[in-house]
Write a structure and sequence with these properties.
GO terms for molecular function: ATP binding. A 5-stranded parallel sheet has the order 2-3-1-4-5, with helices on both faces. Helices cover 51% and strands 10% of the residues. The chain folds into 2 domains: 2-180, 3-Layer(aba) Sandwich (Rossmann fold), CATH 3.40.50.300; 207-301, no CATH class. It has helices spanning 14-26, 46-49, 53-70, 86-99, 112-124, 132-141, 160-163, 170-180, 197-201, 204-230, 256-276, 284-298; strands spanning 2-8, 33-38, 75-80, 102-108, 155-158. It is an alpha/beta fold. It contains 12 helices and 5 strands. Bound molecules: adenosine-5'-triphosphate. Residues 8, 10-16, 46, 118, 122, 160-161, 164-165 line the site of adenosine-5'-triphosphate (ATP).
C-alpha cells in the first residue's frame, strides 16, 4: 500500500517520529498493517554498521532487501534509518514504484548542534549512542531531502527541536492523510506510483545502476563543458577524466544541447539493453568509460 522513508541526521528524533506515525496510522479506521523496519529490528548495531563504507553499504543492502521483501499493496512499511544518501532514497523510491504503491518521505529537520547534544545525553544515560567520529562523519555526509526530487516527494517535515514530536504533529497528520486517502480518477494530490517495464523487471542492483549511470554521465558532460570553457573556444586536445579512464577525443566545440541529447540517447539505449541483456554498469567508472566510448564514436573521432 505504501512506503514511508524517514530521513534525518543521526539522533534527530527519527525513531520517535516513526513510532508516532505508526500509531497514528493504526488509529485510523482502516485497520492498517504497519511495520517499522529499522536497524534494531534487524539486530544491527549503530557503531558497527557505520564503522566504514563496506559496513555501511552492507547495512543499506540489508535494510533495502527487507523493504523489498515486505512492501505490498496491503501494508504500510516505514523505513526508520538515516536514509541520508540521495541515491539510496532513489533506490527505495524505485522499489515503491516497482510495487505500484504510494510513497512519501518524513524528514526530521534538526540542527546538528542539537542532534549532537541529544546524542551526548543518550551516552551519559548509558543508552545506545553514536561514537563521536561516526556521528561527525554521518552529519557531514548528510544529503538533505529536496521536494523537487521525485524520490523526496511528497516531503513532510517535522522540526523536533522547535516543536517536539507528537502523534498530532502537523507533518504526521498530513502524512497519515496522504497515505490513507481514498483515490479515484478525480484525485490529483495523491500519487500511486506506477510500475514501468523498467522498474517491474529491474532488480535492485539495476535501479542502482541507472542512478549511477545518470550521475556518471552527468559528470562526464560537466567535465566537457568545463574543459571547453577553460579553452575559451580555442582548440581542445581531448578531455581527460583522470586515472584509468579513456580520454574524450573531441577537438571541436560541442554545445550543451548536443551534449544533453547525446547523454539522453545513451541513457535510453543503455537502459533498453538492460531489459533483455546484461544490466547497465553498476559502478561509476564503467559507466563513464562506456559513455566516453559512445561519445567518441558519435562525435566521429573513434
Ligand atoms: N524533541 C526532542 N526533545 C528532546 N530530546 C529529544 C527530542 N526528540 C528526540 N530526543 C532525544 O533524542 C534521542 C534520539 O531520539 P530518536 O531515537 O527518536 O532519534 P533517531 O534519529 O531515531 O536516532 P538514531 O539516529 O540513533 O536512530 C533520544 O534520546 C530522545 O530522548
Amino acid at each position: 500500500m505504501a512506503l514511508v522513508v524517514i530521513c534525518g541526521q543521526p539522533c534527530s528524533g527519527k525513531s520517535t517520529a516513526a513510532l508516532f506515525l505508526s500509531e497514528a496510522l493504526k488509529d485510523t479506521e482502516s485497520k492498517l498493517t504497519v511495520r517499522i523496519i529499522d536497524e534494531t529490528s534487524l539486530h544491527l548495531d549503530r557503531n558497527q554498521s557505520y564503522a566504514n563504507m563496506n559496513a555501511e553499504k552492507n547495512l543499506r543492502g540489508v535494510l533495502r532487501s527487507e523493504v523489498d521483501r515486505s512492501v505490498s499493496k496491503d501494508n504500510i512499511i516505514i523505513v526508520d534509518s538515516l536514509n541520508s544518501i540521495k541515491g539510496y532514497r532513489y533506490e527505495l523510491w524505485c522499489l515503491a514504484r516497482g510495487s505500484g504503491i504510494r510513497y512519501c518521505v518524513l524528514y526530521c529537520d534538526v540542527e546538528e548542534t542539537h542532534c549532537r547534544k541529544w546524542n551526548e545525553e543518550r551516552r551519559e544515560k548509558g543508552e545506545a549512542s553514536y561514537n563521536e567520529v561516526i556521528f561527525e562523519d554521518l552529519v557531514r555526509r548528510f544529503e538533505k531531502p529536496d521536494k523537487r526530487n521525485r524520490w523526496d516527494s511528497p516531503l513532510f517535515e517535522l522540526w523536533p527541536y522547535k516543536d517536539g514530536i507528537e502523534k498530532s504533529s502537523a507533518a504526521i497528520l498530513d502524512a497519515v492523510s496522504y497515505l490513507t486517502k481514498k483515490v479515484d480518477s478525480k484525485t490529483h494530490d495523491v500519487k500511486v506510483l506506477q510500475p514501468t517495464i523498467a522498474t517491474q523487471n529491474a532488480r535492485f542492483s539495476e535501479a542502482n545502476s541507472l542512478y549511477e549511470l545518470d550521475r556518471a554521465t552527468q559528470e562526464v558532460t560537466n567535465a566537457i563543458v568545463e574543459a571547453q570553457s577553460q579553452a575559451l573556444g580555442g582548440p581542445l586536445n581531448g578531455v581527460s577524466l583522470g586515472d584509468g579512464l579513456p580520454t574524450i577525443n573531441i577537438s571541436r566545440s560541442v554545445g550543451l544541447p548536443e551534449l544533453r541529447r547525446l547523454r539522453r540517447t545513451f541513457i535510453k539505449l543503455t537502459g533498453q539493453t538492460s531489459l533483455s541483456g546484461p544490466p547497465p554498469p553498476s559502478d561509476a567508472d564503467s559507466a563513464k568509460r562506456m559513455f566516453v566510448d559512445y561519445l567518441n564514436r558519435e562525435l566521429g573521432t573513434a
